[in-house]
Amino acid sequence: MPVLLAAAPILLILITMTAFRWTAAFAGGAALAVTVPIALFAFGYGAPVAGEGGRAVALAGAFAEAGFVTATVIWIIFPALCIYEAQVRGGAFDTLRAALARLSDDPRILALLVAWFFALFMEGVAGFGTPVALAAPLLVTLGFQPVAAVTLVLIGHAAGVSFGAVGTPVVPLEAASGLDPAAIAAAMGLMHGLLGWILLVFVVRIAGAAMPGANRRPVIGWATLAAAAFLVPFLAIAWFVGPELPTVAAALLGGLAFAAAVRWRSRPSKTAANAAPSGASPADGPPAGVLVRAAAPYLVLLVLVLATRLVPDLQALTRSVTLSWTIADTFRGTVQPLHHPGTLLFAGFLLGGLLQGRGAGDLAGAARAAALRLPLVVLALFAMLGIARLMMHAGMVDALSSAAAAHLGPAWPLLAPLIGILGTFVTGSSTASNILFADFQAATAAALGLPVLWIIAAQGFGSAVGNIVCPHNIIAGAATVGLKGGEGEVLKRTLVACALYALAGGVLTFVIVSL
Q1: What is the DSSP string of 232-283?
Q2: Which helix H or strand E contains 375, and what residues bound it?
Q3: Residue 109, CA distances (Å) to 215, 217, 259 in order
Q4: Given phi > 0 = left and psi -120 to 50 = alpha, else beta, which region is 329?
Q5: Quick one: residue 145, left, alpha or beta (phi over 0 = left, psi -120 to 50 = alpha)?
Q6: What pLDDT score was predicted for residue 281?
Q7: CA geometry: angle 169, 199, 151, nearest 5 deg
Q8: Whole-prediction pTM value?
Q9: Burial bucket for residue 484 (CB in 10 Å: 0-12, 13-18, 19+)
Q10: What local confidence, expressed as pLDDT, does residue 149 receive?
Q11: Distance from the CA of 273 to the CA of which of 95, 167, 364, 487 falls in 20 to 30 A?
């Protein structure tokens, strides 16, 4: 019974969002209303907080954490929306769309460029929801419907999440297991390197189905090239270098190579070139200067992220300012505002806008339009995060994971990735999932006599996969493309990809530990 009660909020979210198509705000609100009494009365929540009025303090602390995390996530969504609004109003998206369209008229190839390479690159340099917030609007400008755009990016960026934000998710795995981070990186890199093509297949199929009237030529060759262009350097860097650069370097190198191959393949024939107007070519895109100007916010963001992550002195400077708080020695929150992706996004919005020649009035108008899209997003995020914090502090998450370990025994490797998915689903972060469950996974592996390295790797793998169905990622992506009430449809479409990829990861883990 405790296990069923612990699972009730998650089941309610899944059912109401997929079967009944409730919005994230309504589904989250209903699940939160259920979570509070379960936590208080079935799990005795409030006991960790000493003194009179412990339950009230416990609830206030959990909701304070939820509100704090909501604010940090909104600080990513808001500047991403600002960039989107400014790009649309200034015509920059039209320029970028024209450049991509000149590379190919096949939506599946465009999806590979944006939902695979661009999203993976942004995951590698920034993480924390940035890929969905930036790549999904770009797909919409290319003609994809909002639901398809968000779905494509959620699936496309997942393989890189294990090493997102310059390797951040590996830190808690190292701390919990005491293993060499290079060994952890090699193990997780092998898992994604062997299985990442599964996600690419979903990207190609969904992109093709999203535009049924488009060119239907087989693209198996391009899909194979896209998979190899990212996964081969990704695996090599994870295996021989470490956890900081596999995603960002593989996405950059692979994306450039893939774009060059597409452009080379689309070169006009001599006949077509002779028929074209003087100085023009059917494969020509916007002039380089115009294209750079249109991409200015992203280029500024790229420079800032790489500098603050890879230049030691600048990294130390941006990390030197920390805001933190604590309630009853149990509830806490910490943020480094100068190092936060949202601050860098906002800098990209302002500096990129100035480089594009936009005035203060234009930028302020874009910011106002972005702010008007936030209220329902804030409510949905707060509800989902409130559920997550209550479940964690009340021991509901521990009840679910402990029950799984007790009943599975030697078969644990098959479902170890599901614990990582569960952590990301309820916390909204691969890093937070690893913080939450890495100790549990290591202890379970030791108790069952299983190789700790591969169970820890399965945890990191699963926490990355969980980003595909994480409600707060879905909400963030839906917000940036103006999708209202369609979050359930996105979740429904991503569930199959998430389940299949997780199953493949579990089978691979089981095979490896059985050898």
Answers
A1: HHHHHHHHHT-SSSHHHHHHHHHHHHHHHHHHHHTPPPHHHHHHSPTT--TT
A2: helix 375-394
A3: 11, 11, 10
A4: left
A5: beta
A6: 44
A7: 90
A8: 0.78
A9: middle
A10: 95
A11: 95
Question: Which residue is listed with tokens 């590698």?
Answer: 124
pLDDT tens digits for range 64-105: 998 998 888 788 778 878 888 898 889 887 888 788 778 888
Cα–Cα distance, 316 to 430 (Å, whole number): 23
- Strand-pairing partners, residue 333, are 325
pLDDT tens sequence across 33-53 = 999 999 999 999 987 555 556
Per-residue pLDDT for 279 more than 50?
no
Question: What's at 40, amino acid-wise?
Answer: L
Q: DSSP string covering 452-479, please?
A: HHHHHHHHHHHHHHGGGT-HHHHHHHHH
Mean pLDDT across 494-500: 96
pLDDT at 258: 95
Two structure tokens written together for 240 = 């021989």
Q: What is the CA radius of gyration of the chain?
A: 23
Burial class (CB in 10 A: 0-12, 13-18, 19+), 442: buried
- Reduced DSSP (H G I as helix, E B as strand, rest coil) percent helix, strand, coil of the chain, to 5: 80, 0, 20
Q: What is the pLDDT of residue 276?
A: 34
What tokens appear for 115 in the block?
């939902």
Six-digit token string for 32 = 């939160």
Report the C-alpha gap between 323 and 381 in whole angstroms.
Answer: 21
Q: How far apart are CA 429 and CA 464, in angstroms?
A: 8
Q: Which residue has the tokens 């979903």?
A: 202
Please tell me the predicted confidence (pLDDT) of residue 102: 81
Beta bridge partners, 323, equal: 335
Q: 494: buried, middle or exposed (CB in 10 Å: 19+, 13-18, 0-12)?
A: buried
Q: What is the mean pLDDT of residues 455-467?
A: 96
CB 95 within 8 A of CB 294: yes
State the Cα–Cα distance between residues 178 and 411, nearest whole angstrom.
24
* Helical segments of 91-219, H only: 92-103, 107-111, 119-125, 130-141, 146-156, 164-167, 170-177, 181-195, 197-210
Closest by Cα among 238, 251, 257 to 187: 238
The pair of structure tokens assigned to 364 is 């302020």
At 307, list the tokens: 């500098």
Per-residue confidence (pLDDT) for residue 465, from 0 to 100:
96
Which residues are CB-neighbours of 109 under 8 A, at least 6 positions away? 103, 219, 222, 262
Look at residue 233 and tell me whether its pLDDT is greater than 50: yes
DSSP 161: G
CA distance 461 to 220: 26
Residue 401: half-sphere exposure toward Cβ, Cα within 13 Å: 26
The structure tokens listed for 246 are: 């596999």
Cα 54 to Cα 208: distance, rounded to the nearest angstrom: 55
Cβ distance 179 to 485 under 8 Å? Answer: no
In whole angstroms, give the CA distance from residue 71 to residue 323. Answer: 13
Token pair listed for 34: 């259920």
